[in-house]
Amino acid sequence: FSSFAISFSFMSILMGIFAGYGYVLNKSGPFGLWTWPIVGLGQLLVSLIFAEMASRIPLTGSLYNWNRKLSSPATSWLVGWFVIFAYTIAAPGIIAAMIPPLQTLWGSEFTKNIIFLIAFAIIALHFLISVYGIRLAAYLNKLAVIAELVALVVFGVLLALVLFIKGDAHPELLTTIPNTPIPYWPAFLAAILLPAFTIFGFESPSDLSEETLSAKRIVPRSIISSVIVSVVLGFLFIIVLTLSVSNLGAVSSASDPISTIMSSQLGAIATKIFLLCVVVAMFAVSLLNMMLSSRIIFAMARDTNFIAPSFFKKISLRQVPANAIAIVALIEL
C-alpha cells in the first residue's frame, strides 16, 4: 500500500480536479470532461511500459536510470536534470496552490508575510520529515491517501444521495455540446489539459525502488493499479460534480467552482471538511516532490553525473540522501 500510495498521491486526482475543473468548464463546457477517460486510457498504456521498466531496472531515479541503461549518457543526464527541475519547481507551486483553500478554511485572506511564513514552515516540515527517514514519510503519505480516497468516495456518494433525494441532477450537461466556441474541436482538445496534468507521475514509486521491499514485484503493480483507480475514481467524481451543477454560469464564473458546488449542495461544514482533505493531499504531493527530486540527485551523483558527486551521494544514518534533500529544500525556498 505504501508503494501504491506514492503513485496515487503524486497524481492526486483530488488536487488535480480541484485545480482544473473550472478551467474545463470555461474552455469547453461540461462536455469537455469526456477527455478524462480518453487520456486515462492513453496513460494506462504508458503505465504498462513504465511497469515493465520498473520490473527490469529496479533502480532509484527511475527515468534517469532507464535512459542510462537503454540510451546514452548524454540522454540520461538531460532527462535527470529535466526531472529534477520538474520536481523541485512543482513543490513551491503546489504550496502556493494550498493558500486559497487555507484562506477559505481560516475565514480571511493572508498577508504576504503570513503566506511566506506558511510556505517556509511547510518546506521546513517537508525537509524534517524527509531527513528523518522513508518510514515516516511513507506513513504520512498513506494517511494522506486515505484522506483523499475518503474525500472522493464519501463526498461523491453524499452528492449523489443529495441529488437523488432532491431530484436535482442535470444529466443534460454531460451530453450537450456548447454552441460556442465555433468550431468546438479546439476547445474540446484544450480540456485534455485537466487529465493530462493530473494522470501523470505514476512511475514515482520506481524512484524509490531501492527503498522498497520486493521492488520488482510490488512497484509494477503499484503503478498499474494506481492509474486504474485514479482514472475510474476521478471520472466518477467528475460526473457527480457535473450532475450537481444547478447554475452553470455561476459555477463557471466562480473562483472556486468545486467549493461553490459543495456549499450549495452539502453546506458550509461539509465544504470545509472537503477543503481540508484537499489541503492534506496537496501537502503530501509537495512532500513527495522533495523526496523524489532528492533521489534523482542521489542517483546521478552515484554515477558521478551530478555536481559534487561525493557530497550528494552520501547516505545518512537514517538511510536517506540527506545532502540531496537539503539542496532541494534550499532551492524550493
| Helix share bin | over 70%
Based on secondary structure, the structural category is mainly alpha
> Nearest-angstrom radius of gyration?
21 Å
What form results from the Cα inertia axes?
A: globular
Kindly list the characteristics that best describe this protein.
333 residues, mainly alpha, 0% strand, globular
3D structure, described in words:
The protein is an all-alpha fold. It is 76% helix and 0% strand. Helix 6 packs across helix 14, helix 6 packs antiparallel against helix 16 and helix 7 packs antiparallel against helix 14. The longest helix has 35 residues. 46% of the residues are buried.
Topology:
Elements: H1 2-11, H2 13-28, H3 35-56, H4 62-70, H5 73-106, H6 112-132, H7 134-166, H8 172-175, H9 185-190, H10 193-196, H11 215-243, H12 248-253, H13 257-266, H14 268-302, H15 309-312, H16 322-332
Task: Summarize the model shown.
With about 325 residues, the protein is mainly alpha-helical. It has helices spanning about 1-10, 15-30, 35-55, 60-70, 75-105, 110-130, 135-165, 170-175, 185-190, 195, 215-245, 250-255, 255-265, 270-300, 310, 320-330.
